[in-house]
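subagent[fold] <- orchestrator: predict structure for attached chain, return tokens only, no commentary.
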Amino acid sequence: MSVDTASLAVLLRRAQWLLDDLAHDVGGGRLDAGDLTGTAAVLDELALLLKEKAPLEGTVECSQLSLISLPSPRRS
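subagent[fold] -> orchestrator:
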């Protein structure tokens, strides 16, 4: 696994944690407009990055990942 591929994997895992935290909050009846808007913005950026990295055919090695700033997961 290259450094770029590892970086993408870490970025995807951090997005998963962000969604886990949001799901927990929403399930507990805590809807925060800022969290919802911020998460939507992160997912928009992540979707663009994934589309950029999607190969036209087969599998390619990731290179020059864009920098997306994901908040650190909250631990309750």
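orchestrator: received. Logging for downstream: Residues 42 and 70 are 7 Å apart (CA to CA). The mean pLDDT is 80.
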